[in-house]
Design brief:
about 270 residues; mainly alpha; two-stranded antiparallel ribbon
Length: about 270
């Protein structure tokens, strides 16, 4: 565990933020490459990138504050109110960021005449890459940790912020592995010639969301960090389950719609 990579009297470089920076660069590089393949103009994103970042951070911060309100409002004071603005304390909820981003990006696409589903097909694997690499930063920072385990790859963290003194699941490493695998799978699937363009639009996004949420759901069984519980179930696990349900409904409706069925029927008749 190395939360601080480099420190002097005036400069402190945190490992988590270093990996986050690397993650953003890798995700942006992937996005640019995929935008060329999908014939999308990256300028649309570059024109709105500051707004997207600000709103995503705001969503992540608001949900994190709601989830951990006792850390910010244990007493009413100006200092505690100002502390809600200190995003460098790593109080950012990924679900809040994703929700805020999706709402904003949908309206931006509508306003600028862009295909929301086509953009999301390249944004989904790019965002998952960012989440994957950021997970490595979480490992060195000692956050998002797992519960105790007897498995040979269990790790020990010597930190007062971690409540276990025995080997625990390296859930951050699990997250890195499965997220990298998901992003590679989506990128390869998106470029498969067996999937027609009209069918592919939105399919990559919905499938990616379902797979990501499924693994995130499984990860929660091994997480040992504190979070809210609802009927004994971890709140992020509930979010993941609801995400699978909603995305699954959209996927079924999208590919059982009359238009899709008629297209399939006409294609079968042509082949006959």
């Amino acid at each position: 565990m190395h939360p601080i990579l480099f420190q002097t009297n005036s400069i402190t470089i945190y490992t988590f933020w270093l990996f986050f920076g690397i993650a953003v660069i890798a995700g942006t590089y992937t996005l640019i490459k995929l935008s060329k393949i999908y014939n999308l103009k990256i300028q649309f994103l570059s024109d709105n990138v500051l707004l997207i970042i600000l709103i995503s951070l705001l969503g992540a911060r608001i949900v994190s504050i709601i989830e951990n309100y006792q850390n910010y409002f244990y007493e009413l004071s100006l200092q505690n109110i100002l502390s809600t603005l200190y995003i460098w304390d790593k109080g950012l909820n990924p679900w809040g960021a994703i929700l805020a981003f999706l709402i904003l990006f949908y309206f931006l696409c509508k306003k600028n005449g862009q295909s929301f589903s086509k953009w999301m097909d390249i944004l989904t694997p790019s965002i998952i890459i960012i989440i994957a690499i950021t997970s490595l930063g979480a490992f060195f920072d000692g956050i998002n940790y797992g519960k105790e385990t007897n498995l040979p790859w269990g790790v020990n963290f010597e930190s007062p912020t971690i409540k276990y003194t025995v080997p625990i699941h390296p859930t951050q490493i699990y997250a890195f592995i499965y997220n990298i695998a998901i992003s590679i799978f989506l990128i390869v699937l998106g470029q498969s010639r067996k999937i027609k363009e009209k069918t592919r639009q939105g399919f990559i996004t919905l499938l990616g969301i379902i797979i990501f949420a499924f693994f995130r759901f499984l990860e929660e069984f091994m997480r040992g960090d504190d979070t809210w519980l609802l009927l004994g179930i971890r709140l992020p696990q509930i979010f993941a389950g609801l995400t699978i349900l909603v995305a699954g409904i959209f996927l079924v409706k999208k590919y059982t719609s009359p238009e899709i069925l008629l297209n399939k029927e006409s294609n079968n008749q042509k082949n006959d």
